[in-house]
Amino acid sequence: MIFCVLGPTASGKSDLAENLSLLLKAKIINFDAFQVYKTIKKGTAKPDERYLNSGRYFLYDFVPLDKNYDVSLYQKDCRKLLDEYKNENVILVGGTGLYLKSALYNYQFLEEDPMPKDYLEDKDNAFLYNKVLEFDYDDAIKIGPYNRKRLLRSIYIYETHNKTKTEINKDGKNNLLYSDVIFIGLDPDREWLYKNIDLRTNLMFENGLKEEVDVLVQKYGKEPRAFQAIGYKEFFLGLDDEMTKELIKKNTRNYAKRQMTFFKHQFSNVHRFPSIDEAYKYIKDEGYGNWRPYNFIIGSK
C-alpha cells in the first residue's frame, strides 16, 4: 500500500513516518521540495542522519545545492520508486503538496524551452499579479501578489502554450493513478503548532543555522534555488539575528496555513488526526501491517 502522511510543517510528520515505517516495514519517500537538496540541513528539518542512512529513506539529500530540481523531475523520480517497491508498503511524507499531487495523480507537464532569466524583469510584482488575474484568476489567487517566481511561471506557461496552468491541470489533477492509497492527515491544534514552530526555529539557531548559511553563501553565492526555502531566504534581507529569527517564525506560520488549506482542498478521503499518536494508533488498529501490492491503474507514466 501507499501511505501518504500530510500536514503542516512542524506537525510531526517525519516522526509519524518513521514510526509507521517500523510498524509496516515500509520504505519512506520524501515529497518536500527543499529536503531533496544536499548540504542545507539546519533549516530544512530533515530527518536525523541515522534514519537517512538506514536504507529506508529515499529522495532526501541527493540534489547538489547548485542544481535546480522541480516538480516534473520529482514526478519521474517518485514514480520510478513506486514501481520499484510496488510489492512493499511505501510511505510518502512531506510538505510540498504539489509534489505529492504530481506523483499520484494524472498531472501532465508540457515540454518547453527554459524561461529566460531576464523574463519580464522590468515589471514589478503588482503588474505580474494583475496580468495573471486577467487570464487565470484561480491561479492568481492561489499564488498571491508576492511570489514573483510563480507569477512569472504562470505568465510564461500561458504565453508559451496558449493555455493557462488551470486549464492544463484541470483534466487530470484529480484522477488518482494508483490503487490502495491511504491519506493520513495531521491537523494539530493551531496554538500547539505555532508554539512548536517557534521552538523548532529557536533550536535551529542554537544548532548553528546562521553559521551554516554564512558558509554556504561564501561557497555558492545567493543564487541557488534551494535558498528560497524559509529559514534561508530571510538571511538575505540585511536584518539583525533576532529580527531574522522572528521573520522565519512568521513566514513558517504563514506557510503552515497555506499547507493546511492546500491539503484540505486538493486531497479527498483524508483520515485526519490531531496528533501523531492518534494517527499511529489508527493505522495499527486497522491492521494495515499486512501489505497488498498497489497498481498503476490509469493514465501514462
Question: Tags for this entry?
Answer:
2 domains, single chain, 301 residues, alpha/beta, Histone, subunit A, six-stranded parallel beta sheet, Rossmann fold
What can you see in these coordinates?
The protein is α/β, with parallel strands linked by helices and 301 residues long. The chain has helices spanning 13-24, 49-52, 71-84, 97-104, 125-135, 137-143, 148-161, 165-170, 190-206, 209-220, 241-266, 276-285; strands at residues 2-6, 27-30, 57-58, 90-93, 181-186, 270-273. It has a six-stranded parallel β-sheet, with helices on both faces. Helix 1 packs parallel to helix 12, helix 3 (71-84) packs across helix 4 (97-104) and helix 5 runs antiparallel to helix 6. The two termini are 18 Å apart.
Q: How far from one another are the termini?
A: 18 Å
**Helix fraction bin:** 40-55%
Describe the strand arrangement of the main beta sheet, using strand numbers: 3-2-4-1-5-6
Q: Tell how many strands the DSSP assignment holds.
A: 6
CATH superfamily of the largest domain: P-loop containing nucleotide triphosphate hydrolases
Identify low-pLDDT runs: none
Rg, nearest Å: 19 Å
Q: What is the average per-residue confidence, as pLDDT, rounded to a whole number?
A: 91
Return the structural class: alpha/beta
Secondary-structure element series: EHEHEHEHHHHHEHHHEH
The largest sheet is: 6 strands, parallel
**Given this structure, which CATH class of the largest domain is correct?**
Alpha Beta
Count up the domains. Answer: 2
Number of helices: 12
Write the CATH fold name of the largest domain.
Rossmann fold
